[in-house]
Amino acid sequence: MDWFVFLALLQDGITTGAIYLLLAIGLLIVFSVTRVIFVPQGDLLAFGTLTVAALQSGRLPGTLWLLDGVSVLALLASLFQGRRAAMRGLLAWGLYPAAVTAAALLLAPRELPAVSILLALAIVTPMGPLIWRFAFRPVAGASVLALLILSMALHFVLIGLGLVFFGPEEASAPPITDASFDLGSLNVSGQTLAVLASCGVLVLGLRWFFGATIHGKALRAAASDRLGARLVGIDAGATGALAFGLASFIAALAGVLIGAITPLSYDAGFDIGLKGFVAAIMGGLVSYPMAAAGAVLVGVLESLSSFWASAYREVIVFTLLIPVLVWLSLRSGSPEDRA
Amino acid sequence: MSRIAPPSGLVRPSAIAAAGVEAPPLPASGAGLRPGHGARSLRRCIAPLAAAALIALVPAILPAFYVTLLGYVGMATLVALGLVLLTGISGQTSFGQASFVGLAAYATTVLTKFVDAPPLAGLAAGLVLTGAVAWLLGLVTARLSGHFLALVSVAWGISFFALFGTIPQLHGFSGIGNIPPLRLGPLSAASPRVNLAVIWAAVAIVMAMSASLLDSRLGRAIRTLNGARLMGASVGIDTVRLSRTVFVIAALYAAIAGFLFAHFQRFVSPTPFSLGASIDYLFMVIIGGAGSLWGAPVGAALVVVLRDQFNDWIPRITGQAGDFESLVFALAVIVLLQRAPDGLLALLARFRRRSAPHIEPDAGAPPETPPAAAATPGEELLSLDAISRNFGGLAANRDVSFSVHAAEIVALIGPNGAGKTTLFNVISGVLPPDSGSIRLFGAAAKRLSPRRVAAMGLARTFQHVKLLPGRSVLENVALGAHLSGRAGLLRCMLRLDRAEEARLLSAARTQAERAGLGGMLHVPAGDLPLGQQRVVEIARALCVRPRLLLLDEPAAGLRLPEKQRLAALLRHLRAEGIGVLLVEHDMDFVMQLADRVVVMDFGQKIAEGPPDRVQSDPAVMEAYLGGVA
User: Which of B26-35, B237-246, B410-419 bottoms out in mean pLDDT, i.e. has the lowest?
Assistant: First the structure.
């Protein structure tokens, strides 16, 4: 392998690593606030890619009707929960989906990339809170393992729906930019820079959100002590919805970004999400900087191993977990009792 | 990229044609099992055997399609039984069981087809290979909490699946066909009907062995793995090793299924060993009910049959081939998890009275022997020298020194937050001290662990009661006798531990009666009032046969007559030469009982002496009443 190939692989690896990092952040937010390991996040990523692809080809995506249908259910449910909940439900599950649907009907035929991307984000982002509302909130107190199994079942629901909505074909998202330039002998594509820039902006934005806003602080409070947060009046239902909303926004964004580089099919999200897990596990499911380092490591390793031994790529990436776990287990000392 | 393959193979029988009848079914009784001592344990052992014998008769008359279907149910039941032990009983989860099935299936395939070895050699190779892999994986993950194991199992599930598909000698996704049928000497089992009998005989044996295991000393210990590991360690259970053992057992059950699968289907390819198949096994356990062994066959039957029916009907309804059956199935699982988180069996069990505990303590067993080395009065059992322990900047204990002797009751008192429970945790090996030294039973204790401390003769209770709430008082107390038993895994599974088990239960009953729990031996411990639950903890601690007893607020929540009885019990223990160190807030209780009182405030010892002197100590009065004087 010569120097150019190595640099090209490194570029690939860092780009996919950035995507894994986004997913790892989403997973960490959801896990620390609700103890749910959000397996379907990868499927929402695929929804993001396929939704923007459908809009870009002038079709209305099935995810839009899914959003409308489930929103109606949520709206009906909120009507029975008192006036304040009903008002909020009317805004979130009545006006919002109606506005998005109208916008999609009007704007989809024009096939403008920027509009398609924004619409796709607007359609996929509410899926997180809806999943929380109907799947997890009713059993929020269950054990981590029960929530994980529920999460796995949801993954099957989403890929089932994905197949119905989008068919088995792969599709691409429109690139944010077609520009590319040469750095020495290496060709750097504008999309790669767009991925890295979006990732950076998102990380900084989340930093600001968690550090400076009341909602962000409420999430942090709920993450560090659920019961304590409830005792000081932080609504566990709202923090859960917010955490899932952030995660599904992140997933949709990642889908829109990676979809321009690699075409995806309805069931491709799981693997990508799983590598986000690997990155998150490297962070011990607690630390964001560790997860970032893990994500880039996973991306680069995957890219290099696909060059050397592409058949064993998955094996190599997942075997990487073992030394990390040994280290974690040596560090953790005696196993704690789980709540 | 390897994807989750649609669940198939093991749980999708309709694709495989079943051959006709060629030989009569093998007798399918549980050879190698011995009846237990009590009639009840015998009945418990017989139930699965009888059910299996019935099912073993069925193959002779069933249509071929159902032979295949039942075969898949049986093999899935084996895997699910392992998951019941792993998930339901010990609280760990694996999304990688199908890869263990695959390892064993490929092992026997390679041996019997390519090397022409007898199938029994294939079985042995599969068990050894799978067991070794599981042991290594367990070594890495057993110390981590539950969801780590679950997530890592997803990763190895995908890795093994990818390996099965990429190793050229295994023929990739085109698979290996014409695997030789099962044979034992001159007997050959080429017919699916004979295979079916073999499969269900294996199910019956594995189920009976699992039931025996749960019904033993090790079974009780396994239950502490699910959220009560600290308590388990405090009675001397090696929780890390035990959770690895359970993990290996579950993998071996999957390996048996894999061996049978290869010779039943006589074709292997990577598809039935995918992550999707692993998840299906987990769904079976969840649907049937992870808390009971019977959840495994119920869940396996439901999932296999429902998947089969969905595959038939849903394309007809929707008129298109899609992934609708997976979708509908997954939705059903979600609704079930929300409505009946403990599984369908638990839902049914609400209509049925809980059966009484199955083991009776043997009344004729020899009486409990006194503590191993009865201490001479005045012998120093515990001595603390300048113990300090910090949490971040907070000094929970600072330079605490005192000692406890045989035949002495020492009370540790102090306002809330004085550091008493921290000190208890340091003494019992849960927390290492930052500085200072501990001498326990005359030996300098450098690195204490809860388990070693228990083996040395120190027993404790917890401020926040730690019991197995669903198990009977007797079983909870018997946990304390863990170190008095020797029976290992095989003896427990083969019911060769009955004499020892009766002795342990008899000891447990003696201690429970002594603590005043005689009337409620068979009540689930979680149903008792909190005060009585503390007494159960004391009885459990007594079962450890301690020379030194650490009690954390034993009288909290007790009514006056119960307190008096507890005081009498403690005096009795003192007369036997046991040293008692107790934390207690009830001053009347402490002052009339203790020989010596140690008072702590803000992590430091501020006074020590006989009760009357401590009560008039100005420093103590200031700590309790504030600086008014």
Answer: B26-35
